[in-house]
Amino acid sequence: MKESLRIGTRASKLALWQANWVKSALIEAYPQQNIELVTIKTKGDKILDVPLAKVGGKGLFVKEIEQALMDGRIDIAVHSMKDMPAEIPSGLCIGAIPAREDPADVLVSKNGLLFSQLKQGGVIGTSSLRRGAQIRHIRPDIVIGPLRGNVETRLKKLQTKNLDAVVLAAAGIKRLNLEHRITEYLNCDIMLPAVGQGALSIEIRQNDPDIQPIIKTLDDPHTRAIVMGERAFLNYLGGSCQVPIAGHGEIHRNTFNLTGLVADLNGSRILKATLTGSADATETIGIRLAQQLLDQGADKILEKLQLRESANHGS
CA nearest 208: which of 25, 1, 28? Predict the structure, then answer.
C-alpha cells in the first residue's frame, strides 16, 4: 500500500463532492490509508466564454487530469462519466464505476413553470447540443440561451440573465443538496440523458498493483454493465465530438433495455430507437443499436455535424 494516495479532481464544488465521496469510501475500507486531493484545472474550466461545441471535442474536462495520472502526479482520477471521451488513453483504464445517481435531466424554472407551461418564445439556458436539440424538437418556439459554468453559476444565471429556465443533470443537483430547486424531472420521452450521466468514472493506470485492488472495491457491477453498454453505443457512433447523441440503459431481471438517440442541431430530425437483450451482453447491444441508427440515417446527420465542427476549428 502506498504511503499516500493522491486523487486528482477538478476544483468545482460538484467535482470536489465526487472526489471526497471516493475518498470517504476508500477510508471506510482502508482506515489507515492517507488520502489527499489534488485539484487540476482543465481546458473546460479555463475557457468559460465559449460554447463547449466550439472549444473542441470531448475530453475538455478530463485531459489534464489524465495527463497527471500518466505522469504519476496522481494515483486516481475521479471524473463525471458523461465527460469521458469514448476512447481511454493507452496505459489508463476505468478502474471502477460506483453505483449510479439518478441519470435524468431536470428543469429549474424561474417561476415554477413546467416545460410544457413555459411561454411561447421562452428562453432555456443550456450549452449542451444534446439538450438543445431535444428541447427544440418538442418546442421549436423555445429559444436556447448559451449557458456555461458550474451548477451554482448556472442557477445564479437563471436570476441574472434573461432566462426562463435551465436544464441540468439531476445527479449534480442532488449531490449538492439543491433538490429543492428542481421544478420538474424530465422523462426520457422529453429528454434522453447523456451517456453515463449520473455515474462516476474512477480512472487509474493499467496494471497498477497498488491501486487496482483498492479501487475495485468501489465498483458496482450492475452500474458498470449499463454504463459500458451506453458507452459502446457512443463509441461506435464516434461520439468523441460535441454532437447531439444520447443514450440511456436499464437492467431489469437480467434484461438490458437501451434507448439511443442521434439528432441534428436544430432538433428538426431525431432518430431514436430501443434495443433489448441479455444483461450479459450490454456492449454488444450498444453496438447493434448504434448500427441500427446509422442504417436509419444517423450517418448523414453525424457527417454534417463533423463538417461543421471542422469548419469551427479551421481544420
Answer: 1
Whole-number Å distance between alpha carbons of 150 and 31: 32
Per the domain annotation, does 227 fall within a domain?
yes
pLDDT in tens, 253-289: 999 999 999 999 899 999 999 999 999 999 999 999 9
Element (H, E) at 15: helix 13-29
Give the count of beta carbons closer than 10 Å to the beta carbon of residue 2.
13
Residue 111 · residue 152 · CB < 8 Å: no
Q: Is residue 192 part of a domain?
A: no
Report the C-alpha gap between 211 and 179 in whole angstroms.
Answer: 34
**Nearest 10 degrees: CA dihedral of 110, 120, 197, 63?**
-90
d(Cα 165, Cα 27) in Å, to the nearest integer?
A: 39
Pairwise CA distance, residues 77 & 62, whole Å: 9
Q: Is 264 a catalytic residue?
A: no
List Cβ neighbours of 304 (8 Å cut-off, separation of 6 or more): 264
* Number of domains within the chain: 3
Q: Domain range for residue 206?
A: 1-98+198-219
Tally of CB atoms within 10 A around 28 = 9
Which of 74-78, 254-258, 289-293, 302-306 has the lowest average pLDDT? 302-306
Residues 304 and 255 in one domain: yes
Please tell me whether residues 75 and 202 are part of one structural domain: yes
pLDDT digits (tens, 9 = 90+) for 175-215: 999 999 999 999 999 999 999 999 999 999 998 998 999 99
Q: How many whole angstroms separate alpha carbon 80 and alpha carbon 97?
A: 10
224-245 burial code (b ≥16 CB/10 A, e <16): bbbbbbbbbbbbbbebebbbbb
The model carries a pTM of: 0.91
| Entry field: residues in the chain | 315
Which one from 45, 75, 83, 264 is the annotated catalytic residue?
83
